[in-house]
Amino acid sequence: MNYLLDTNQWSYLQERHQQVVAHLRQLPDDATLFMSVVSQAELLTGIELVANTRREKELRSLYQEVIAMATEILPVTSGIALQFAKIHAALRRKGRPVETNDIWIAATALAHNLILVTSDEHFRYIDGLSVEDWTQE
Question: What is the pTM of this model?
Fold first, then answer.
């Protein structure tokens, strides 16, 4: 199985969230974890927000740990941009607002045929997107 972890899941891994870590340990050896460049930017933004504090060093260290878990950081491509446009238009027609960064992450999962791992319910409004929540037992 191939998974794209949403930003909240990478954050949970940084925090050693019990269920997320347990789920990760139960994955088969051939499972691969991917990160969207959008999640990377969100994690780096969190670090920048605490720049020049004691917390910055801790977050940078944790960031390096989770980056090492990702098989690849997936960039935004023209194919992902097309998926983004389709998702965004469909959500607007349904009257279901979703944050722009989350649409980019969903588009990345769809374009690469990945299971999106997230604890955000609004991803379930996106047609064709396979979603798992590792925070649940």
Answer: 0.92
CA angle 47/120/70 to nearest 5° reads 50
What pLDDT, in 10s, does the model give residues 47-93? 999 999 999 999 999 899 889 999 999 999 999 999 999 999 999 99
Q: How far apart are alpha carbons 35 and 105 in whole angstroms?
A: 9
Fold of 2-132: Rossmann fold (3.40.50)
Contacts of 112 (CB under 8 A, 6+ apart): 2, 4, 34, 74
Domain spans, the chain: 2-132
Residue 4 structure tokens: 């794209």
Percent of the chain clearing pLDDT 70 (strictly above)? 100
Quickly list DSSP for 60-118.
HHHHHHHHHH-SEEEPP-HHHHHHHHHHHHHHHHHT----HHHHHHHHHHHHTT-EEE-
Q: DSSP letter for 6, please.
A: -
